[in-house]
Design goal:
heterodimer, A: FAD/NAD(P)-binding domain, 5 domains, 18 helices, B: Fumarate Reductase Iron-sulfur Protein, Chain B, domain 2, 10 helices, disordered N terminus, binds flavin-adenine dinucleotide, binds iron/sulfur cluster
Chain lengths: 666, 178
C-alpha cells in the first residue's frame, strides 16, 4: 500500500486568499492511502522542500502530492526534491490549486475550497498508480550546423568554434555576409558595414574548426537532437573552387550580361561572376541559365561560347589563367552528422511592386535596401547619389516609413529597424550634402534602442524634416518627372504635399523564401507572420519546438545588428550547453508501443507532431515504433491508437481513469 | 499650393533661410524640438484655442514655412508667461522662438495694427501700454498727475529714445523717429 504525503502550499496569499487550507487539509487526510498532510507558506522554498524530504527520509511517505501552482514551472523542482531524498522522481503529482482554482475563483471562497479538494483527490488517485520511471541518456554528436551565414550565423559559428566545437556553416549564396555586407554605414554608431564585417568574414573562413560550405542548402534531415544526419546540397559552380584564385578574369571577359541581384538589378553582372568585391570565399560561379555555353548546348548540342575557359585567342584575350572552368560540374550531396543546429537564415525586404499607390513603376521610387546600394561605394553608382531615372543629383528626397509594416493587408508587425535606418539615411546624406532637403514621413518615430533617441535628436538637428502622423497616401509622377508626395502632418494638423526628386520606401522585413520548408525539415514551427517561432518569448527566446534546433537573427523576427548578434551568441551558448556534455538526457515521460498489440494501422504515424513514430518490421509485419529520443511526451498517439497498444508513461490509462473517476465523483 | 486643395500645406514652398534667420534672431535651439507637446499643454495660446499655438509654431518654423507663420497673427497672442520655457524637456526655450518669429515679422511689417500702436507709444512715452485719462482722479487722491516714470521725465525719455534709435527700430519703425 502506498504512503501518500499531501503538501498544501499557501503560495503566500495566492492560494490561501481563496482556499480554506485548513479545511482542505482535513479533507485530504480522509483520502485513501494518504499518510501525511502538511502545509507551508511557500512549498517551493528550501524549508518547504525540506519538509517533503524529511518525511521521505523518515519513511513516512513514498508517494508525493504537492497541491500548489503549475507543474510547468515547478514540477522539476519537486522532482529533484524527491530524488534528493532517495525516491523515484516520478512518484510525484501536482494539483494546481492556484492557476486552476484560487486565481480563477477568487471571489468564490467556498467553491474554490471545494474545487481544491476535488483536484487533490484526483492527484491522489493518480499517484497511487505511479510507476517508477528512469530518465535515459543518449550519445551526443559534438558538432553544430549553422544554417545561414549572415552576421548572426557568423557570430554563432565563431563562438562555437572558439569553444572547440566542430561547426559546419551552410550558406545559400556564394559568399557569406548576408544583408549587413550590403549596408553602407550602420546605425547607431555609423561604422562602415564592410569595414567591421569583412575581417569577421575572413576569420570565419580561416577558423580551423569551421567548415564553410557556401552556395549550398540543406536538402534533407534525418535523426534527432544529438544525432542529426543532414544532407547538404552543394550547388554546381561550374568553376573548380580548388583552382579558382578569385582573379576575376572570367567575370570581365564573359559576354553574357544579366541584371545583378546583389545590387537589386540596378546594374549588371556577367554569367560568370563573383558575388561582390569582398566576397568570402572569393570564388567565381557560373550562372547556368544565363551562360551561353549551356544555352547553346541545350539547343544545338554545340557550345556557342567558351570564352571564360579559352579566352579569345585572335584578340590576344586569355581565358581563366587557373584553368578552373568546369562545365561538367555537378550538384554534390554531402552528409553531415551534428548534435545541434542553429538556423540563422535572416530576412528579405518587400518589393516595391506591391504598393501601387506609390508609383512603383517610377525608377525614382526605390526601396530602402536599394537606396543602401545606391549610397554604397560598392553599389551601382559607386556611392554617388544619383536619381535613377536621369542620373542627376536629387535636391529633395522623401522617405516613407512602415511600407507594408503595421498594415493589415501585408504585415501587422513593426519591422523595427526602418525608423532608425531612415534617420541613418538622412544623416549619411546631410553629412555629405548639407543643402539637400530631406523629408521623413513617419506614423510615429520608434527609436527604442541604446543610443537611438540621441541619434534621432542629432539627426533632427541636422535640419532633417520629420513629419509625424504622416504615412503617405500617394506618390504621383508629375508631368515634369518629379514626384508628388501626399501626407498628413499631425503636428501641423494639416494635409501636406511635397514635390520630391526621389522617394525611398522603408519596405517591410519578411522571412526569407523557404523559411517554412526549412523549419519543417527540422519540425521547427513558424508563427503567424512566417518567422520561425521561439518556444517562449521570455524564457526560451532561442529554442524552437524542435529539440536541439536553435534560432538566431532575423529569421525569428525583425531585428537590428546589435540584437541579431546578441541573439546569435545566446543561441551559440544554448547549443554549446547542449552539445558539450557529450550526453543527452531524455525525459521518461514518453510513449511506448506494445508491438504485440499494434494492429499495424499506422494512424499514429502522421499524428505525431515530432515525427517520432515510424512503421518498422517486427515478426514479419510493419509495426509502429516510437523513437524515444524524438518523442516529446505529448500523448497524442496514445489517445488515438484504436488498439490501445501505446502506453504513455506517466499517464497510463489506469492513472488517467483513476484521476477522472476521482474528479467526477460526487 | 498649385495643385492641392485650399487646405493643403505645400511643403515644397519651405524656405531654409527662414530657419537660419530665426536662429540668428534668438531661436537658437529651434531644431532640438521633438514635438512632444508638453509646452502646448500649458500654453495660454493653446488653451485659448488659437490655431497656431507654440508647438505648431515651432514645427512650422522648422519646416521653413515662412509665409504661413508670418501671415498668421498667433505669435502676437503669446502672453510671455514663460511656462513653455519652464516645462520644455529639450531646452528649446520656446518663448525665444515666439520672439524670433515676432522679430522676423516686424522686419517685413507683418504684424497686427495694435502692435504698431504699442511701438509708437513705447517710443513716444516710454511705455507700450499706459493708463490715459486718469490725471483728474490721480489728483483727487493726492497723486501727481503723471506717474513717476519716463512719462513725467522728459530728460530721461529723451535718453531712452536715443537708445531706441540705436536699435533695429531705426530701420523698421513705420513712423518717423524724430
Ligand atoms: C535597408 C536596411 C538597412 C539596415 N540598416 C541597419 C543598420 O544601419 N544597423 C543595424 O543594426 N541594422 C540594420 N539593418 C538590419 C540588419 O540588416 C539586420 O539586423 C541583420 O542583417 C540581420 O542579420 P541576419 O544574420 O539575421 O540575417 P541576414 O543578414 O539576412 O543573413 C542571413 C543569411 O542566410 C542566408 N540564407 C537564407 N536562406 C538560407 C537557406 N535556406 N540556407 C542557407 N542560407 C540561407 C542568406 O543568404 C544570408 O546570407 C538594416 C536593414 C535594412 C532592410
Ligand atoms: S561560357 Fe561564355 S557565357 Fe558562359 S560563363 Fe563562360 S564566358 Fe560567360
Ligand atoms: S520601425 Fe518604424 S518605419 Fe519600421 S515598421 Fe516600425 S514604426 Fe514603421
Ligand atoms: S510664453 Fe508664450 S508661448 Fe510660452 S507658454 Fe506662455 S504664452 Fe505660450
Ligand atoms: S518646444 Fe519643447 S515642450 Fe514644446 S513640443 Fe518642442 S520639445 Fe516639447
Amino acid at each position: 500500500m502506498a504512503k501518500i504525503g499531501v503538501y498544501v502550499c499557501h503560495c503566500g496569499e495566492n492560494i490561501a486568499g481563496a482556499v480554506n487550507v485548513e479545511e482542505v487539509m482535513k479533507y485530504a487526510e480522509t483520502l485513501p492511502d494518504v499518510a501525511v498532510v502538511r502545509n507551508y507558506l511557500f512549498m517551493c522554498s528550501d524549508p518547504g522542500q525540506d519538509i517533503i524530504k524529511q518525511d521521505i527520509k523518515e519513511g513516512k511517505v513514498d508517494r508525493v502530492v504537492v497541491a500548489a501552482c503549475t507543474p510547468r514551472t515547478h514540477e522539476p523542482i519537486f522532482r529533484d526534491a524527491l530524488e534528493a531524498a532517495g525516491l523515484n522522481r516520478y512518484f510525484l503529482e501536482m494539483a494546481n490549486i492556484r492557476d486552476q482554482d484560487s486565481w480563477a475563483h477568487w471571489h468564490d471562497k467556498t467553491g474554490a475550497t471545494e474545487k481544491a479538494k476535488r483536484l487533490i483527490r484526483s492527484a491522489v488517485a493518480k499517484v497511487r498508480f505511479a510507476e517508477p520511471l528512469e530518465d535515459r541518456y543518449g550519445e551526443m554528436e559534438k558538432s553544430v550546423m549553422v544554417i545561414g551565414g549572415g552576421v548572426a550565423g557568423m557570430f554563432a559559428a565563431l563562438d562555437l568554434a572558439n569553444m572547440g566545437l566542430k561547426v559546419y556553416l551552410v550558406e545559400r549564396q556564394p559568399s557569406i555576409g548576408g544583408m549587413m555586407i550590403k549596408l553602407d554605414k550602420t546605425f547607431p554608431t555609423m561604422d562602415c558595414s564592410a569595414c567591421i564585417l569583412t575581417p569577421k568574414m575572413v576569420e570565419v573562413a580561416q577558423h580551423p574548426n569551421i567548415e564553410l560550405i557556401t552556395y549550398a542548402e540543406v536538402d534533407a534531415v534525418k535523426g534527432y537532437v544529438g544525432n542529426f544526419d543532414i544532407t547538404v546540397k552543394k550547388k554546381a559552380r561550374y568553376i573548380d573552387w580548388d583552382k579558382c584564385t578569385g582573379c576575376g578574369v572570367c567575370t570581365q571577359i564573359c559576354p553574357s550580361r544579366v541584371p545583378n541581384e546583389y545590387n537589386y538589378n540596378m546594374d549588371q553582372r556577367r554569367a560568370a561572376y563573383i558575388e561582390f568585391p569582398q566576397a568570402v570565399p572569393k570564388k567565381a560561379v557560373i550562372d547556368r541559365p544565363n551562360c551561353l555555353y549551356f544555352k547553346s548546348m541545350e539547343k544545338t548540342g554545340k557550345p556557342a561560347c567558351e570564352i571564360c575557359k579559352k579566352g579569345i585567342p585572335p584578340k590576344g584575350i586569355q581565358g581563366c589563367p587557373a584553368d578552373a572552368i568546369k562545365f561538367d560540374d555537378k550538384d554534390e550531396y554531402i552528409n553531415l552528422k551534428v548534435g545541434a543546429v542553429i538556423i540563422s537564415t535572416g530576412y528579405k525586404v518587400m518589393d516595391k511592386t506591391h504598393f501601387k499607390e506609390y508609383s512603383p513603376h517610377s525608377k525614382d521610387v526605390v526601396t530602402a535596401m536599394e537606396f543602401e546600394r545606391i549610397v554604397s561605394a560598392t553599389g551601382p553608382t559607386e556611392g554617388e547619389l544619383k536619381r535613377p531615372s536621369d542620373g542627376t543629383k536629387p535636391k529633395t528626397i522623401a522617405f516613407i516609413s512602415c511600407v507594408g509594416s503595421r498594415d493589415e493587408r501585408y504585415h501587422t508587425y513593426c519591422s523595427k529597424v526602418c525608423c532608425m535606418y531612415m534617420l541613418k539615411h538622412a544623416r549619411i546624406l546631410k553629412e555629405k550634402y548639407p543643402d539637400i532637403k530631406l523629408y521623413l514621413f513617419f506614423i510615429d518615430v520608434r527609436t527604442a534602442g541604446k543610443d537611438f533617441e540621441e541619434f534621432y535628436v542629432y539627426t533632427r538637428e541636422l535640419g532633417v524634416k520629420v513629419i509625424k502622423g504622416g504615412r503617405v497616401s500617394a506618390v504621383d509622377v508629375k508631368p515634369n518627372g518629379k514626384l508628388r508626395v501626399r501626407a498628413f502632418d499631425s503636428d501641423l494638423c494639416s494635409p501636406v504635399e511635397l514635390e520630391a526628386d526621389m522617394v525611398v520606401l522603408a519596405t517591410a522585413i519578411e522571412p526569407p523564401a523557404g523559411t517554412e520548408e526549412l523549419g519543417r525539415l527540422f519540425a521547427a514551427t513558424c508563427g503567424r507572420e512566417g518567422f520561425l517561432r521561439e518556444v517562449h518569448t521570455k524564457l526560451y527566446p532561442v529554442e524552437t519546438a524542435a529539440k536541439g534546433v536553435f534560432l538566431a537573427g532575423c529569421v525569428q523576427g525583425p531585428k537590428d545588428i546589435p540584437e541579431s548578434i546578441a541573439q546569435s551568441r545566446a543561441a551559440a551558448s544554448a547549443a554549446a550547453a547542449l552539445v558539450i556534455p557529450g550526453k543527452i538526457k531524455f525525459e521518461a515521460i514518453i510513449s511506448e508501443v506494445d508491438r504485440e498489440k499494434c494492429s499495424s494501422c499506422g494512424v499514429c504515424v502522421p499524428l505525431c507532431p515530432y515525427g517520432a513514430i515510424r512503421l518498422e518490421e517486427y515478426k514479419g509485419k510493419d509495426k509502429a515504433y516510437i523513437e524515444p529520443a524524438l518523442c516529446a511526451g505529448c500523448g497524442v498517439c496514445a489517445s488515438a491508437c484504436p488498439s490501445r497498444a501505446i502506453t504513455f508513461h506517466g499517464y497510463t490509462t489506469e492513472q488517467i481513469m483513476a484521476q477522472l473517476d476521482a474528479l467526477t465523483e460526487a | 499650393m498649385e495643385e492641392g486643395g485650399v487646405n493643403v500645406i505645400d511643403l515644397t514652398q519651405a524656405d531654409e533661410s527662414f530657419i537660419k534667420e530665426l536662429k540668428e534672431l534668438g531661436a537658437e535651439e529651434l531644431k532640438e524640438c521633438i514635438q512632444c507637446g508638453k509646452c502646448a499643454s500649458t500654453c495660454p495660446m493653446a488653451l485659448a484655442g488659437l490655431e497656431f499655438f507654440i508647438k505648431r509654431i515651432i514645427h512650422a518654423a522648422n519646416l521653413g514655412l515662412r509665409d504661413i507663420l508670418l501671415e498668421d497673427s498667433s505669435v502676437w497672442g503669446c502672453q510671455s508667461c514663460n511656462r513653455c520655457v519652464e516645462v520644455c524637456p529639450m531646452d528649446v526655450v520656446p518663448y525665444e522662438v515666439i520672439q524670433a518669429v515676432r522679430r522676423a515679422a516686424i522686419k517685413v511689417e507683418s504684424c497686427p495694427a495694435n502692435t504698431y500702436e504699442g511701438l509708437r507709444n513705447l517710443y513716444k512715452f516710454g511705455h507700450a501700454v499706459f493708463p490715459k485719462g486718469f490725471e483728474e482722479r490721480r489728483k483727487k487722491v493726492g497723486l501727481p498727475e503723471k506717474p513717476p516714470t519716463a512719462l513725467s521725465n522728459e530728460e530721461l525719455l529723451k535718453k531712452y529714445r536715443e537708445v531706441l534709435r540705436q536699435t533695429i527700430l531705426e530701420e523698421i519703425a513705420p513712423f518717423p523717429l524724430d
